């Protein structure tokens, strides 16, 4: 029965958002598809300062766009240039834990597809499960484990991609290599590991962190994977990076996980991550 199928946005909803965005950018300069879309995670919004010749579009102006409520997240699309490349940054993303459905969480990615985005760069703040990881470290995401609902559940629109999309290489191997080269040339150490995504909003118990470590995860967070799945569904190559904002193992007796500390640690490491992204964009 039709009514039992989970709600999906009609194609026109994505089109209306894309049209509005194109028109707003065209008020400032000739429209050109973004070479890359960059999603800025918790505390990482400052990367937007690197963008030149900006057109800033608040989410609240865009038809059908959800609004951003999470700590450390603004709600703007910022078009402009980084390293001579045409980019759009999402300053603030939507999380499942805020109460959005997965179709809302991933809505912007499909709008980016309609706008012709060539690459998706995703960033996030994450807990460091791997014993070697320290607060402020960076991790290239080489794979993920999804413990959230899958955003593709519901009727499939073949115009975006297939019913059963491949996930053998969710993170583009040549972008990973490029990131390693860029980081080395800048003298920044980067780890390469597996990101595990839960719904949040509660942080994990010590036993959950240990469970994730034994499952093969290096870092844990509450975002990113939905956007990556939807981007890969429609064929957009993805690069992902986590900033390690808190230890997720071997807790001291007086240690507590705190959202403000997470945003602060991300903010402090944002510069390093930004310089790697900029270097990658220059080289691409
Ligand atoms: N767990 C889940 N999400 C997070 C964490 C964590 O420890 N740190 C930053 N985001």
CATH superfamily: Nucleoside phosphorylase domain
The unique ligands bound to this protein are:
hypoxanthine
Percent in helix:
25-40%
Distance between the termini: 48 Å
Task: Give a count of the beta strands, DSSP E runs of length 2 or more.
Answer: 9
Percentage beta strand: 15-25%
Biggest sheet: strand arrangement: 5-8-7-6-9
Q: Into how many domains do the coordinates divide?
A: 1
H/E order of the elements? HEEEEHHEEHEHEHEH
Mean pLDDT: 92
> Which stretches of 5+ consecutive residues score pLDDT under 50?
none
At CATH level 2, the architecture is 3-Layer(aba) Sandwich
CATH topology label = Rossmann fold
Structural Rg: 18 Å
Number of helices: 7
- Based on secondary structure, the structural category is alpha/beta
Give a written overview of the molecule:
By secondary structure, the protein is α/β, with parallel strands linked by helices. It has one domain (11-283): Nucleoside phosphorylase domain (Rossmann fold, 3-Layer(aba) Sandwich). Helix content is 30%, strand content 23%. The protein contains seven helices and nine strands. The chain has helices spanning 11-26, 102-105, 107-114, 173-186, 206-214, 225-233, 259-283; strands spanning 36-40, 52-58, 76-82, 85-91, 119-128, 138-146, 191-197, 219-221, 238-247. It has a five-stranded mixed β-barrel, surrounded by four helices. A hairpin with a 2-residue loop joins strand 3 (76-82) and strand 4. Helix 4 packs across helix 7. The chain starts with 10 loop residues before the first helix and ends with a helix. The mean pLDDT is 92. It binds hypoxanthine (HPA). Hypoxanthine (HPA) is lined by residues 125-127, 200, 203-204, 220-222, 245-246, 248, 257, 262.
């Amino acid at each position: 029965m039709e009514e039992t199928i989970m709600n999906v946005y009609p194609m026109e909803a994505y089109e209306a958002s894309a049209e509005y965005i194109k028109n707003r950018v065209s008020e400032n300069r000739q429209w050109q598809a973004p070479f890359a879309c960059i999603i800025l995670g918790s505390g990482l919004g400052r990367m937007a300062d690197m963008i030149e010749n900006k057109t800033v579009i608040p989410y609240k102006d865009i038809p059908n766009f959800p609004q951003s409520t999470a700590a450390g997240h603004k709600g703007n699309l910022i078009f402009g240039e980084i390293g001579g490349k045409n980019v759009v940054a999402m300053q603030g993303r939507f999380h499942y834990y805020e109460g959005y459905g997965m179709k809302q969480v991933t809505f912007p990615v499909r709008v980016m597809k309609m706008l012709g985005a060539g690459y998706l760069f995703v960033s996030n703040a994450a807990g460091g499960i791997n014993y070697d990881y320290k607060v402020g470290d960076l991790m290239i995401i080489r794979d993920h484990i999804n413990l959230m609902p899958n955003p593709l559940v519901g009727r499939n629109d073949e115009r975006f991609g297939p019913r059963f999309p491949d996930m053998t290489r969710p993170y583009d191997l040549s972008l990973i290599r490029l990131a390693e080269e860029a980081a080395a040339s800048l003298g920044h150490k980067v780890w390469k590991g597996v990101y595990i995504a839960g719904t949040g909003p509660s942080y994990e118990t010590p036993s959950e962190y240990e469970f994730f470590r034994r499952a093969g995860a290096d870092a844990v967070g509450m975002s990113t994977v939905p956007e990556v799945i939807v981007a890969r569904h429609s064929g957009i190559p993805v690069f992902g990076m986590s900033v390690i904002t808190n230890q997720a193992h071997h807790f001291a007796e007086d240690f507590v996980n705190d959202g403000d500390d997470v945003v602060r640690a991300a903010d402090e490491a944002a510069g390093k991550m930004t310089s790697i992204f900029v270097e990658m964009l220059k080289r691409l």
